[in-house]
Amino acid sequence: MKVTKINAVPHPRPPAPDPLRDALQVLGGAGTVEVRIETDEGIAGRGDVYFGRIAGGPETLAALVERELAPVALGTDPTMVRATHEAMLRETEYHGSFGLPLPL
Question: What domains lie within the chain, and their CATH numbers?
Fold first, then answer.
């Protein structure tokens, strides 16, 4: 069995009317990203991930999943979670493997 398709769909929400603030920024954005995975045997799965309160977060995360992480996971055996996770960690090592790049 192999992963044949991965889609990331951003679901932004309107900014909060009273957003969180700190001394440097207003954290008014919100939303989630839905990730859908399909295999060559017709098995499909989905999950949702939330990314903070920065405007554009869901769109940025969806782009990262589709353009950087999905190419690593396509063609892999979906039962080999640890191996795929380690490959994605290596792929994102240059810019950081935690925070925004970690969700898949």
Answer: 3-91 (3.30.390.10)
